[in-house]
Amino acid sequence: MILRMPEYCRSxxxxxxxxxxxxxxxxxxxxxxxTADYYMSVDGEFGERLKKGISSGDCYSFILDNERCPxxxxxxxxxxxxxxxxxxxxxxxNEHPRYYEWFEGVREGGVGLCCEEAAKxxxxxxxxDRYYETEIPCEDCDEYYHELYRFLYEVRERMMDIxxxxxxxxxxxxxxxxxxSLIQECIDNGETELIPEVQxxxxxxxxxDIPHMLSIFRGLEPIDEKWKPYIDGLEExxxxxxxxxxxxxxxxNIGIYFIWRYFLKGVxxxxxxxxxxxxxxxxxxxxxxxxxxxxxxxxxCAVLAKNYSKEIEYSEENLEALYDMTYTERLFFNESxxxxxx
Length: 342
Known about the structure:
Elements: E1 2-6, E2 30-31, H1 33-41, H2 44-52, E3 54-56, E4 60-62, H3 79-84, H4 91-95, E5 98-103, E6 106-111, H5 116-125, E7 131-135, H6 146-164, H7 169-188, H8 210-218, H9 227-237, H10 245-262, H11 266-269, H12 273-291, H13 298-312, H14 316-328, H15 334-338
Parallel strand pairs: 1-6
Antiparallel strand pairs: 1-7, 2-4, 3-4, 5-6
Helix pairs in contact: 5-10, 5-13, 6-7, 6-10, 7-12, 8-9, 10-12, 12-13, 12-14
């Protein structure tokens, strides 16, 4: 079996105590059974501390102390690593922020936008078309149509190439949405033998409805209590304005990230249009956030993108709500979405 990931993932390093939004704060952290058994076998003073810091209800998990993992010390470093070694972390702590999707003979993955160090890589290098592959032991996956996988794999490359093209952001997004609609139609009609050519999407004079866009995000269930107040404040400052070249690159790379991460899931539900629209919605929100502050540099853009990812990607309810709205909410129809880009 092959593990395939973007090349930039090789450069990911956790910033540990330097991180301004630790993944060890504010999250419930489940512990896999194998690691929990090991923790329970540790002797001595630290072994006693492990036993006191782990809940064994329906599943093993760390008992949070004021929203913090009990093994996150005052320097925001992990006492499990310091006392037992990095190889003794549980599965979630070892893998985060990596994500994976399983197909027959292939496990695809990457690093998630919800981590600020990963976000820096995605914003600056996410547009690269280089991937690395390594051999790993075989793992199971759900059943799917292999012809559809081949079709979507090729289509995904074309979609990412659309966002890499040297066009205006609006033209790239319009092309992408038009192509996604065509591909969904092919899937619905069972026409997946041949890959359609990319067509130029029709331009539109529709104006971007920023207040309505922000009201949709305000209506989602917040993970961080600061999210809704931020959206409220954003409405006063957000506008669809010309971004500098760095911002445009970051916005394109966010779109590529979402397409890489979610598009191939369509082999299981035959649904790709909502996944592409999620990418464009995320690009639009990034544009509003980046443009609402003066002199926003790469680090601040990474923090804003990370905050957005936490609220959307790490809430199944919010993710599903956006997917549903891509078919029911007029703001998320092609013409209205394209209006958020110049």
